[in-house]
Amino acid sequence: MNIAVVGLSHKTAPVEIREKLSIPEAKIESALTHLKGYPHIQEVAIISTCNRLEIYAVVTDTEKGVVEITQFLAEIGHIPLNVLRRYLFTLLHQDAVRHLLRVSAGLESLVLGEGQILAQVKNTHKLAQKYNSISQLLDRLFKQAMTAGKRVRTETSIGTGAVSISSAAVELAHAKVADLSSKKIAIIGAGKMSRLLVTHLLAKGSQQIAIVNRSQRRAQELACEFPNVPIQLYGLEEMMATVAASDIVFTSTGATEPILTKNLLTEVTIAANSLMLIDISVPRNVHTDVKELAQVQAFNVDDLKAVVAANQESRRQMAREAEALLEQEVEAFELWWRSLDTVPTISCLRSKIEDIREQELEKALSRLGTEFAEKHQEVIEAMTRGIVNKILHEPMVQLRAQQDIEARKRCLQSLQMLFNLSVGEEYS
Hints:
The chain is of the alpha/beta class. It has 3 domains: 161 residues, Glutamyl-tRNA reductase, N-terminal domain (Beta Polymerase, domain 2, 2-Layer Sandwich), CATH 3.30.460; 144 residues, 3-Layer(aba) Sandwich (Rossmann fold), CATH 3.40.50; 82 residues, no CATH class. A 6-stranded parallel sheet has the order 7-6-5-8-9-10. α5 crosses α7, α7 packs across α13 and α14 runs antiparallel to α15. The longest helix has 35 residues. The protein is elongated. It starts with a strand and ends with a helix. The mean pLDDT is 89.
């Protein structure tokens, strides 16, 4: 078996490719079921964000498993394999482990050190557990990744002042328009990214903010998080009127097709001299044809790279500190992985000794007499179990901790011979 990750990110693929392969949460279950149906995939988990789609899998045959994942991606994205391959990366075993830990720590993010990705890794793990697509190996790997992400944020300063995609979008708007306080701003969508947009806009002095969302309840919940700010709320039927009356519009919805197009914008009279559209959604909410309109400036997530770059240098030293911590976490996972080959022998030895304990306990109790045995059986049972556990504990700890593969193999063979263990028959 091997751990593999096949995917693409903002580093390997433009937004027009990433949006084709975006898998919304509502479709994660069917995607996981589809992938588990392939003959060479035993476990699988999917990270799908605006900047990456990564499929982690435990494969019984590395080459065939990777091919199955690649075929799956080509099918869901309707992209020819020869085109798709140029955007994909494939990492195996320790490289795959290290990559997930880096992702969780924010070292692979567009915004170095951003904290939102850790929550997305946690959600990936939760969904994989919910839909029974992971077992021992990926469960342990994702838990190790979450531990690593927390350590990096706790033991380094990489998260201090680290910006999210939302704050990078606001920084871009602020760079283009020095005084945001005088501008009418609309946000289409009322999810987590929109909440962050409001937070960063208020920090930049914005005073006129409108939220447009299909669900008024969700929009009201967002507005309630900012009780001292007069946020205006509109339904989708008022979207174009709100856009037309705004100076800057941020879009952050789960729509799979563009909701703002050239045709829609030409049908309304834009109140401002110019309209700025900043789309932080993948798939994109704003069609590329809006750039044909003279009074419209349009930006998407890929345009945020320049903004992010300006903030990256101060975090690079902190990232180097984080790298050292991650190597410790990679080694911890590798040590656990290597210890798995001791499990059959340990289980067989424990089972054999437990059988001996039960047999000898039964003999002892029968000699003690019925009245004594019934009165004291629980105590004697606990004592014998304790003796067995204490005898086995230290050898088992040392066996699992043995890092030299050949030395550990010799120890296992010695145990099997000395205790006449039939490991191959029962645990193969």
